[in-house]
């Protein structure tokens, strides 16, 4: 009997980790620099839009295609 062993570190998992990390890190760094430059409100808007964009990409790429249905009767 031949079993295929799937690794936890697949291409899809690495891409998901990269999207989540970059969706938090890049807007966070931009918010920090804008805050230090005196643009606190703009920094907050940049962070919120970056985080929301990351959430949208994760939803669109990984969650939306899932077929989540109950049993048919």
Summarize the SSE layout with pairings.
Blueprint: H1 11-36, H2 40-63
Helix pairs in contact: 1-2
InterPro entries: DUF7996 (IPR058309)
Pfam families: DUF7996
Transmembrane segments: 12-30, 42-63
Q: How widely separated are the two ends?
A: 35 Å
Estimated structural class: mainly alpha
| Count of separate DSSP helical elements | 2
Biggest sheet character: none
Radius of gyration: 18 Å
Mean pLDDT rating: 88
Global geometry: elongated
H/E element order: HH
Low-confidence stretches: none
How much helicity do the residues have?
55-70%
Q: What percent strand?
A: under 5%
Summarize the structure in words.
There is one protein chain. The protein is mainly alpha-helical and 73 residues long. The chain has a domain at 12-62. 68% of the residues lie in helices and 0% in strands. It contains two helices and no strands. It has helices at residues 11-36, 40-63. α1 packs antiparallel against α2 (40-63).
Could you write a compact summary of the structure shown?
By secondary structure, the protein is an all-alpha fold. Helix content is 68%, strand content 0%.
List keywords for this structure.
transmembrane helix; DUF7996; transmembrane; membrane; 0% strand; mainly alpha; 73 residues
